[in-house]
Sequence to fold (156 residues):
Amino acid sequence: MQHPFDAFNGRILVAVDGSANARRAVAHVAAVASCAESVQIILLHIISEPDPDYFASPAERLGWLAERRMEAESFMADYKQLLANHGIGNGRITAVVKERDCPSLSECIMDEMRRLEVSTIALGRTGLQAKEELLLGSVSKRIVHHAKDCAVWVVT
Fold:
């Protein structure tokens, strides 16, 4: 019989943006990971590229992507410092910023989960109201319902 913890490989993917709930998810993972030196943390931010027709020119598209990347690098540095404040060294932290065409952000996150072979996904819950969530859906809700072979931590 397989022990339930055999599925945990020590790799936690934290899907982040610049929101307060994403920061709380990082803080939660920091508290858990500070107790286990073998845990590796992967901070993931996906820049979902709009359709190329959204931009007036290729230069405008590149400028937009550069702005999003600078924003991401700023909050990633903040999250890495938060982890360091919990005693988690840089050797245990990987920060990944991906630019992708993502019709579904949840699918892109789960693609990365599979590619990186993590056993846990942590993310902050979006602050959608019930009507908005019904119309638009929620990344965290989709991941909870569709992620396979991993634990999902949703932090509010």
Residues 58-85 form the longest helix (28 residues).
